Request: fold
Amino acid sequence: MKKIGTKKLETERLILRKSTLEDAGSMFKNWGSDPLVTRYVTWKTHETIEDSLEYLKYIQKEYQEGNTYHWLIVLKENNTPIGTIDVVRILTDGVVEIGYNIGSLWWGKGYTTEAFKKVIEFLFNEVDVDTICARHLVENPASGKVMQKAGLKLEGILRQREICNYTNTLMDVAYYSILKDEYKNKKTSN
Reply:
């Protein structure tokens, strides 16, 4: 696995770029303070713009390390930040876990899948990872659909594995993954 860090990526409709402190207002307004978005994530709903700013300060420090992969998802058409996608964990050398969130105003438009596919391409082709995985609470099946559309396969469900921020109860978690060989074989067969 190469230590490349976050590089700017582009898709047909999106720019995936490093976040800056100036993005705090957009983050707070567009997804950080949205309880629909934060219902199934591991972090708490941002109550003030300061919460978003503190998070972005943390990410700025992570960028300095060089082995961080954290992108802001920005609409090309109007330069609006609508969410994030990042490597939330490097499990072992060559195995990474992806996490993402997008403002509820932009749900159902394919933006998250589009961003995820681009990140998968980058991680396999440039960073040289072997396995990409992701997980979601089973009560959030829309996230599982994003994973499937991006090419990941369901590995299994772990029972009562994570506490849900919204209900403060233990919930089942679905795990997905895609292997580099699967990705490469799918690309050559298309």
In short: The CA atoms of residues 6 and 123 lie 10 Å apart. Residues 9-189 form a domain with the Aminopeptidase fold (CATH 3.40.630.30).
